Structures are given as structure tokens and as C-alpha cells.
Amino acid sequence: xDLSETPGQQAFRLEARDWLEANKPPLPMPPGDxxxxxxxxxxxxxxxxxxxxxxxxxxxxxxxxxxxxxxWLIFEEEYYRAGLPQRVAQNGIFLLAPTLFEFxxxxxxxxxxxxxxxxxxxxxxxxxxxxxGSDLAGIKSRATRDEEAGGWRLxxxxxxxxxxxxxxxxxxxxxxxxEAERHHGMTxxxxxxxxxxxxxxxxxxxxxxxxxxxxxxxxxxVGDDDVLGGVNEGWNVAMxxxxxxxxxxxxxxxxxxxxxxxxxxxxxxxxxxxxxDDPALRAEVAGCWMEAEAYRLAxxxxxxxxxxxxxxxxxSSLNKVWWSEMDIHLHETALRLLGxxxxxxxxxxxxxxxxxxxxxxxGTNEIQRNVIAERVLGLPRR
Length: 382
Ligand SMILES: Cc1cc2nc3c(=O)[nH]c(=O)nc-3n(C[C@H](O)[C@H](O)[C@H](O)COP(=O)(O)OP(=O)(O)OC[C@H]3O[C@@H](n4cnc5c(N)ncnc54)[C@H](O)[C@@H]3O)c2cc1C
Prior knowledge:
Layout lengths: L6 H17 L13 H14 L18 H13 L8 H14 L2 H12 L5 E4 L15 E5 L4 E8 L10 E7 L10 E7 L5 E6 L8 E12 L10 H14 L5 H20 L7 H28 L8 H23 L8 H10 L8 H12 L6
Parallel strand pairs: 1-4
Antiparallel strand pairs: 2-3, 3-7, 4-5, 6-7
């Protein structure tokens, strides 16, 4: 595998870097999960779209630049290197969009993708329920057929819906065949949250920001053209989404590369002031850098395989355990370096709080380890 950049990739990197430097908003931005902060993020992401940088690897007709996955990785590196935050549009562009490219109809793609990239519509993920998180096949929210109206009536409750309080649309799983066994008989629906019968109730995160919502459905109508991938085929379609969530798109190496660069910088600054009294910290920081670099190289291997036509399989679970545990390690090391200087509102502590949720969302790491044991290593099922 030759990882050196082609002249075209180098030019792409420089173009992205120059554009981001010239157009980025004042930093740090306010948190995206607050009533005041959300519009600031939305406006910034619209600017990104207008500049042609929102979804570089998508086809031009949907607002992309037809860039390769390699160029997407380069863009992500430049984005995070510029100090920019995680995107409020992430669950649409990184989770739903790849699923739409794989399973969507032409009509769905043309109705949804461009508006999603332009942050005119903001999508959230409606999978978890109060009694179905790890056991996603245990969902009880249901969709019943309304033949006369040509669609479905949704009822039930979703929970932990990230950014649900600010989103306009939801991609969700609902049971369409109550007789079917667990993984069968569920369907993937695309729902406009402005529909009659939807109630969204914000839920605060650990840091007090309204990062979650509970979403209630009371006889909500959804047309047949908003079924993604076929009636009763929802589990299959959802597994494609999890491949993106755990695997390539949600957490690119650029994000962790930027964190580790800040960590190394923090160490240097502290050391220059003679403030490091624990020699083990030096090795810890070097270890963090190696982890982030190894993740970058492992992702390059994944991109090589995907570019050759392979699909992301259960090995996306390896990826998910890796990025989520690494994120905690990087932030914990920074907090050790900061000691009493850790600022309660500062980026390291906020980042640490968010990192703690990494082993839970996108499927808990215990579940990922089950997947790795059974489907990657072929160990017996328990
Ligand atoms: C920051 C964050 C964002 C989220 N965003 C969304 C979102 O946008 N949309 C959405 O639908 N959901 C979202 N979730 C919910 C998330 O998917 C669930 O929290 C997760 O799947 C776990 O489900 P649970 O909370 O019900 O825990 P449970 O499933 O009750 O699990 C409790 C504990 O038991 C362990 N456990 C359960 N079953 C097994 C098993 N078979 N083997 C070993 N251990 C097991 C789990 O690993 C966990 O430690 C989010 C969660 C967080 C923290």
C-alpha cells in the first residue's frame, strides 16, 4: 500500500486548507446542542455546502465533488486540523446518506440528499426505545398498514435521539409484522418530524445541553415512498447503517489526529514551563500518538478494500471499539497533564465527557465484542 499523496491529492488538500482558513467561523463555536449554539453551527455547515465542501465524496448532482474516499479522508484531516467541531448534520450525511446510496430509490435520493447536504433538512436516528437499546431487535414501536391512504401509521416511542430537539426528520425502525420473529418484520422509515402526531421532548445530556430527545408517535402517517429498502427488510438496511456508524464514516482519523496534535502541544507547553513531574506522562503521550497514527493506517487499509469493491462487514465493530476507547485515552491523558488546571468548561473536559459516551452509542462495546467474537473470530455463541 503506497500512502504517499498524488499531486492531485496534494492540490486537493491545499485547496481545502485555504478555503477552510478563509471561511471558518470564529472559534471556539458555542455548543451545537443548545438553542443559541445550534443556529450558529447550522449556518456554518450551510456555508460549507455553498463552498462545495459539505459532502466532498458525493456526486455533484447532490452537492458533492465526486471526490474519492482518499480525498474525503484528506478533507476530514484538514477540517479537524482547522479546529472545527463535529457536524450537527453528521447523522444524516454519515449514517443515512450511505444507506440511501445503497438502498434508496431514485426519487428518495433526489428528494432527500441535496437538502440534507445543504442542512435544509436535519436528520436524526430513531432506533433505541426505552426497552430496546442493545437488543435492537426488541423494538416495539409499530407501523400498521393504511391501505386507503397508501402508507403506514406509526405509533410508539423512541429515545436517546441525538439532536432530536433540533432535527426536522428522522430515520427510524418500526415493527411492520407483529407476528414475525425479532429481526424479521421491521421496516426502515423516513419520517418528517413536522407530521401530525409527532411529539419531541428534549432530554439533557450530562453537560446540561439538550443533546437528546424522546420522540413519540401517535398514529403518524408515512407514505409508501418513505419506506427505505422494502417492507420487513428493515434489519438488513439498518445493518448497512451500522457499518457506516461503527466503521468508516462517523469517526474519521482526522478527528483523532487533531486531538492528539493538541495533546502533544499541551505536553510541550507544560514541559517548557517545567510543570511535568511524572515521567510516565511522556510515554503516555507518545502512546496516544501511536494509537491515533495506527488508526489512520488501519483506516487507509479499509479505504483500500472498499475502493476495490469490498463491503464493510462485522469488522466495523473492531473499528468502533478502537475509536471509542482511544478517544477516552486521549482525553484522560490530557486531563492528567492539566491536573488542577483542567477547566470545567474547557474543551478537554467537555471532550472527555463526550468521549465517555463513545463506548455506549453506535452499539455498546460489549455488544461489539460479542460481534467480534462470533462473527469475526467464529467463537461459539453464548
Ligand atoms: C451519546 C449517545 C448518543 C446516542 N444517540 C442515539 C441516537 O441518535 N439514536 C438512537 O436510536 N439511539 C441513540 N443512543 C442510544 C444507544 O444506541 C443505546 O444507549 C445503546 O444501544 C445501549 O442501549 P441501552 O442504553 O438501552 O443499554 P442496555 O441495552 O440496557 O445495556 C446496558 C448494559 O448491558 C450491556 N449489555 C446488554 N446486552 C448485552 C449482551 N448481550 N452482552 C453483553 N453485554 C450486554 C450493555 O453493553 C450495557 O453496558 C445514544 C446513546 C448515547 C450515549
